[in-house]
Amino acid sequence: MPAERLIDDNVLLEELRKGTPEAVEMLFDRFHGKIFSLAMSILKNESDAEEATQDVFMTVVQKAHTFKGNSALYSWIYRICVNTCLMRLRGKRRSETVSIEDFMPVFTEDGMHASLIDDWSKEVERKALDKELGQVIRRFTENLSEKYRVVFVLSDVEGLSNEETAQILGLTVPAVKSRLHRARLYLREQLTTYLREGKTQ
Amino acid sequence: MNCKELVYLLGDYIDGTMDDHLRQELSVHIEMCEPCLNFLKTYDKTRILCREIRPEEIPEEVRNRLRAFVLQKAKEHHRDIEKYLERAAEERREQVTLVIRAYVDNRLSPTLSVLFQAHRDRCDRCGAFLRGINGGKKIPDVPPEIEEHIADFLEGLPPGENPVVG
Is the dihedral of CA A184, A185, A186, A190 positive or negative? Predict the structure, then answer.
């Protein structure tokens, strides 16, 4: 995070605590896209994500005076968002998720790859990330259980560091790394099948 | 190192947190093992592709609805706080005036009377103000800094005692 943004965040918080209406607008304009997309990737449902986003903003507005500045503002807001969404999930019937174990790479007894490993990386390079592939990846990630999904979204989609993701989720860095690694293995496997067979499983 | 071990170490290899010795061992294996090289390339590509996913765009009407909701609720919240603060300030003003009135009329409870006089003698600001009105019939407006100070003093009193008698 560049320093000038940090100063801005401090100013924004200061104004929020005072209840300046422009500060609420600025807060909304700056964060609503991120909060909504994060809520969507956890809740996978637009109306739930909308309600969660409302709750997140109200929590931020009401608790602005409790923010200590130990972490960056966005990471505090992400944490509120993740917690809000997980609370919501808790009250719901879980949607179907795949078992990540079914998509781990398979090895022979002496630890060699048990299946042929194609290199499709160049192939994808040529067509870049088209809309279809983007949607396919999103669908694959939606099938992950939230244990992996949330870590994956924060680290690999939002691009936060493992340390930040760990802090937001209250996990250790090794736990974040291992979940992230498994999520990537799962996605690599799914993408391989998709690109080889041209269809999703 | 075999392929299975290599695959489970790829995360550290890619993010650069692996120690040099292990990294060296991994690199040697990858150089000699085409499946692992392909695995590494596709694993890394997966990671890169995911960074390129555009976040779920918020639909225009959802954004507008959310914006209106948040701004409205925040306004109500801050209005509630303001009202609360105003009421608290009003109550404080009333309490301070009541105590000063009782002090002038000699109606402070015995304990408070002792404490209040001790405070008056110790505190220059409050002392000057109180001596200025001593015996007067009409209590002048209490300056904010005196009000604040007397309110702080009252805060520190033992709870449950009615400060005024009669």
Answer: positive
Averaged pLDDT of chain B: 87
pLDDT surpassing 60 at residue A200: no
Q: Could you give the ipTM of this predicted complex?
A: 0.83
Q: Which residues contact A91 (CB under 8 A, 6 or more apart)?
A: none
Choosing among B56, B69, B75, B85, which should be mutated to test the A contact, i.e. which has the most A CBs within 10 A? B56
Whole-angstrom Cα distance, residue B98 to residue A9? 44
Alpha carbon of B66: minimum distance to chain A alpha carbons (Å)? 7
Separation of CA B64 from chain center: 29
- Which chain A residue is nearest to residue B46, measuring alpha carbons? A188
Q: Are B116 and B108 in contact (CB under 8 A)?
A: yes
Interface test with B, best of A22, A36, A48, A161 (most B CBs within 10 A): A36
State how far the Cα of B41 lies from the Cα of B38, in Å rounded to an integer.
5
Report how far residue A26's alpha carbon sits from residue A5's, in angstroms, rounded to the nearest whole number: 13
Q: How far is A109 from chain B (nearest CA, A)?
A: 10
So what's the pLDDT on residue A3? 44
- The answer to whether the CB atoms of A57 and B74 lie below 8 A apart is yes
pLDDT in tens, A127-155: 555 778 888 888 898 899 888 999 999 99
Q: What is the mean pLDDT of residues A53-64?
A: 94
User: What is the number of alpha carbons within 13 Å of residue B95 lying toward its C-beta?
Assistant: 17
Size of interface A-B (CB pairs under 8 A): 150
